[in-house]
Specification:
alpha+beta; about 170 residues; Nucleoside Triphosphate Pyrophosphohydrolase; about 40% strand
Length: about 170
């Protein structure tokens, strides 16, 4: 009850947890949520990034990892289902966590993010049944700004992309 009240009534938008035992801490936190594993991709094409607009917010293609499916395969499947874009999934960029209300509780979603390169010139197509309104490539700088303005968890992705670029 205390956790629900904190999540529902708090104006806090971001929490950073330090731990000497991160795996044990995550295991303890997970006990209080429905836990979902997901995967997504940051798809690039000629210095542009593929974005989706879902429920009025800019987002990246992502979705649940099915049982016995690898995160990399889930990222590819979800990307194709949501956008009709074929791509080559590359290395893992980072993992993010976010919480959202669901039914009478909350979900803690872990998302593994991968770099990807678009391989197709097929027509992009929004998966309307998933609430996706638009699919489009945007210049990288603008895309990253739009994402950070949408959801705080994208700040980590933006930071990681900039680190990968410098390597």
């Amino acid at each position: 009850m205390v956790l629900n009240n904190f999540l529902l009534l708090s104006s806090i938008t971001e929490v950073l947890i330090y731990s000497k035992k991160p795996k044990a801490t995550l295991k303890e936190i997970r006990k209080h949520f429905q836990y979902i594993k997901a995967a997504g991709a940051v798809v690039s094409k000629k210095n542009q990034i593929l974005l989706i607009k879902r429920f009025g917010m800019w987002d990246l293609p992502k979705g649940k990892v099915e049982p016995k499916e690898s995160a990399k395969k889930a990222a590819y499947r979800e990307l194709f289902e949501e956008t009709n874009c074929k791509c080559k999934i590359g290395t893992e960029i980072c993992t993010t966590y976010h919480i959202y209300p669901f039914k009478k509780g909350f979900v803690l979603k872990q998302t593994k993010w991968f770099e990807a390169r678009a391989k197709t010139s097929k027509q992009l197509k929004a998966q309307k049944k998933e609430g996706i309104e638009k699919v489009m490539f945007k210049p990288k700088k603008k895309a990253l700004e739009l994402l950070v303005d949408s959801y705080m968890s994208f700040k980590k992705i933006k930071d990681e992309i900039n680190v990968h670029k410098k390597r």
